[in-house]
Amino acid sequence: MAIRTTNGRGMRYDSVLDTVGNTPSIRINRIAPDNVTVYVKFEAFNPAGSVKDRLALSIIEAAERDGSLKPGQTVVEATSGNTGIGLAMVCAAKGYPLVVTMAESFSVERRRLMRFLGAKVVLTPKGLKGFGMYTKAKELAEENGWFLASQFETSANADIHEATTAREILADFEGERLDYWVTGYGTGGTVSGVSRVLRKERPDTKIILTEPDNAAILGSGYINTRNEANQPTEGHPHFNPHPIQGWTPDFIPYVLQEAIDHGGYDELLPVAGADGIAWSRRLAAEEGIFTGISGGSTFAIAMELAKDAPDGSIMLVMLPDTGERYLSTPLFEGIAEEMTEEEHAISLSTPSAQMAAE
Fold first, then answer.
1. Pick from 63, 43, 52, 64: which is nearest to 88 by CA?
2. How far apart are CA 29 and CA 135, in angstroms?
3. Residue ranges covered by each domain of the chain
4. Helices (DSSP H) in 24-128: which residue ranges?
5. Which element (helix H / strand E) includes 267?
6. pLDDT of 137-169, one tens digit each?
7. Could you tell me which of 269, 315, 322, 268 has the C-alpha nearest to residue 294?
8. Higher pLDDT among residues 249 and 179, named by residue
9. Which residue of 181, 244, 309, 338 lies most exposed, with the fewest beta carbons within 10 A?
10. d(CA 246, CA 52)
11. Is there a catalytic annotation at residue 52?
């Protein structure tokens, strides 16, 4: 086998923001069933490590264009972490102060990443769930005259996925079959934006949406109330806490409503958080693909679909982020910090072990 070589991208970038998007579709070689071909769109290749880099950049630049965001104005947003990390990167590069509100139940490393990128993080009680951090962000914007990013309502969210994510999928599978596209939802921007394009240009592709089985708010059929600004006015009565961080706040976002109203998906399938954790671990240990619980959960649904999929089917699965922001979550439970017995045995198997003992 010849040694691998690289030639560079043939260009230089004026800003880290110019590297957002164009994430790779990667084939799964060892853990996919033999009857299907599975690819993952690995959004961890974005500069701040998640799919939310796309909407963060889109929100800020749309607000700059329409004048709703003034030079030097503070940006504020409620987030479980990935949008906040993306916004922190964008605001750092563009020179805007950022304040993030986040429920205290989300992983510690997420708040530390945002602070490392220069943001302020205001924690809200976990008992108030996502609606509590959302309410806090609105209050701070109103009290201080800050710019509310409004990831759950703004058209800039789905628009960027229509303009980038969907176009990348079309380019990656040009002239090839694509039988299934599988995604979860947080704000709903990915499914709403991508489905606009796939419905028109790849109508044979089945769009599969998934949500946590113990927080199946979309599957319940109940749409929470919203005000005239399309902001939720209540938490969803069918929501329960779940381990898939970044998915399913305790309300149905307005951005997602487009996919609901216009048939943006063919099937909605629930997934257990434990299955997401298990498949995330397998992707890492057997494919070298390091994604979080949300990515593992989407992949779990793809593996269920594969059981009954026609032979030769081709699937593309969204992996929203990297696994590094889950170190303090159940994803890493049981992963030892000190050497295991097997590792001790390996260490003791060479002469230097005797020298250390002396």
1. 52
2. 44
3. 16-45+165-332, 52-148
4. 52-66, 82-94, 108-116
5. strand 267-271
6. 999 999 999 999 999 999 999 999 999 999 999
7. 322
8. 179
9. 338
10. 10
11. yes
Separation of alpha carbons 320 and 49, rounded Å: 9
Instruction: For residue 135, give every residue at least 6 positions away whose Cβ sits within 8 Å of its Cβ, in sequence order, or none.
Output: 128
Strand order in the sheet with 36-42: 25-27, 36-42, 313-319, 180-183, 206-212, 267-271
Tell me the pLDDT tens digit for each residue of 31-45.
Answer: 999 999 999 999 999
The catalytic residue among 52, 129, 136, 206 is: 52
The pair of three-digit structure tokens given for residue 325, joined into one six-digit string? 């922001």
The dotted CATH code for 16-45+165-332 is 3.40.50.1100
Q: What is the pLDDT of residue 81?
A: 86
What strands, in cross-sheet order, belong to the sheet with 75-78?
120-124, 98-103, 75-78, 147-148
3-state secondary structure (DSSP) of residue 48: coil
Dihedral of CA 66/68/71/74: which sign? Answer: negative
Catalytic residue among 50, 107, 195, 294: 294
- Which helix or strand (DSSP H or E) is residue 212 part of? strand 206-212
Relative to beta strand 36-42, strand 120-124 is unpaired
CA angle, 348 then 354 then 355, to 5°: 125
As its CATH architecture, domain 52-148 has: 3-Layer(aba) Sandwich (3.40)
> Is the overall model pTM greater than 0.85, yes or no?
yes
Equal fold, 16-45+165-332 vs 52-148: yes
Helix axes 273-282, 293-308, angle to 10 degrees: 90
Mean pLDDT over 260-271 rounds to 97
How much is the pLDDT for 105?
85
